[in-house]
Write a structure and sequence with these properties.
Length: 397
């Protein structure tokens, strides 16, 4: 079985942490004997914009074609402008770059699997029409909750992609419900799994891990891991320090546009720390080193880092957004409201001082994760979806 995986992000040697969840699922499929090729179209910006924007210059350092862990990854370029998803969809230009790559390298898959309705799904719809190939679309979060609200054109492309796919998958129940409201089409819930074998208990003491990571050993540490943006609730988390006892510190692991403003807090407060971006392999170390993980986002899809924290039995404080309630199951009352510093402060105190996450609660959350979000289990389900889709299409020919 040959699958063409279309996505806007995928890891490389230069950026090994970009879109790691894609690679995790692809590797699980390969272990099942599925042959996967990845096309990851990248925006090509006018010269002046590339000069001004550091991240666009960095994109040029990644090879246009490379082999990673047995998977060939193609990165054809398409002309784009920053923020264009708000006002003009690049689906036709992305589709043209994919079709050219398929022709140039004689890529002949049995099925296309596109990730995110916009922009990859919009492009995959066109590619599937021209190649007469069946295709599957996975909805991840922002493509359902954010992008369709940008403009009438964005909503149109979203609906076209969802309605055209032979099968639609959603990584969480909330996304399935929202997609149904927007398009009147049903989808199947199938999360992108996590390699839970990497998230096992360690014999190393917390104090030893903190010394190795150069973190304060005497503090109670609340850690945030992710992209540093306002929408992730990082400023509410930083402000919560004003109402927390002096033995509590907050650690931000990651990079993003909010980093400089957060650094201003750190300069005047020895209880706030920023590590910058770390390798994905080191995420578990920061979870082990901390007393609680916090993700006070305004919106989410199915956040991988919450799955990882619960798999390590680390107490999690999160807002009740996206598919997070599904991760908590019958313990979803532990989730908090968005944009509320007071809710954060109260919940942090509950966890650190009142043993809110008992051993039984942590074990039940752990069992839910192991049962429903292991990458190998979900890869078996995904391969079956591929097989059914291919057979249903070709049986009618």
């Amino acid at each position: 079985m040959k699958i063409l995986w279309i996505t806007s992000v995928y890891p490389s040697d230069e950026k090994p942490d970009l879109g790691v969840f894609h690679e995790t699922q692809v590797q699980a499929l390969i272990r099942l004997g599925v042959e996967v090729t990845v096309i990851c179209p990248v925006p090509h910006h006018p010269t002046l914009i590339r000069y001004v924007k550091k991240q666009y210059r960095a994109n040029r350092r990644i090879p246009l074609t490379y082999l990673r862990k047995g998977v060939t990854v193609y990165r054809p370029s398409y002309l784009a402008l920053p923020g264009q998803l708000r006002w003009a969809q690049p689906d036709k230009r992305i589709a043209a770059s994919i079709l050219k790559t398929m022709s140039d390298y004689e890529i002949e898959p049995d099925l296309i699997h596109a990730h995110f309705a916009m922009p990859s799904g919009g492009a995959a719809r066109i590619v599937a029409e021209q190649t007469k190939l069946p295709w599957i679309l996975t909805l991840h979060g922002s493509d359902v909750n954010i992008y369709p609200n940008y403009s009438a054109g964005a909503k149109k492309v979203f609906k076209q992609a969802v309605l055209a796919a032979n099968q639609v998958l959603a990584v969480g129940e909330s996304l399935k419900i929202r997609a149904k409201e927007l398009t009147d089409r049903n989808s199947m819930v199938l999360p992108i799994g996590v390699d839970l074998t990497r998230f096992q208990p360690t014999d190393e003491a917390k104090s030893q891990i903190r010394r190795r990571l150069q973190l304060p050993e005497e503090k109670k540490i609340v850690v945030f891991i992710g992209r540093l943006t306002q929408a992730k609730g990082v400023f509410e988390l930083a402000h919560s320090l004003q109402w927390l006892s002096n033995d509590v510190a907050i650690l931000f692991v990651g990079d993003g546009p909010a980093k400089d403003k957060l650094r201003q807090h750190a300069e005047f407060n020895r209880r706030l720390f920023l590590t910058g971006q770390v390798e994905n392999e080191r995420v578990k170390d920061y979870l082990f080193a901390s007393d609680v993980f916090a993700l006070p986002s305004y919106s989410e899809g199915m956040p991988t880092v919450v799955i990882e924290a619960l798999a390590l039995k680390v107490p999690v404080i999160s807002t009740a957004v996206g598919s997070v309630p599904e991760l908590f199951g019958e313990h979803r009352q532990l989730l908090i409201e968005t944009k509320s510093v007071s809710s954060l402060v109260n919940r942090i105190n509950d966890v650190l001082n009142r043993n809110l996450f008992t051993t039984q609660v942590q074990q039940e959350l752990y069992e839910n994760i192991q049962k429903n979000f292991h990458v190998d289990h979900n890869a078996v389900l995904l391969k079956a979806v591929y097989q059914r889709t291919i057979e249903s299409i070709y049986s009618t020919i």
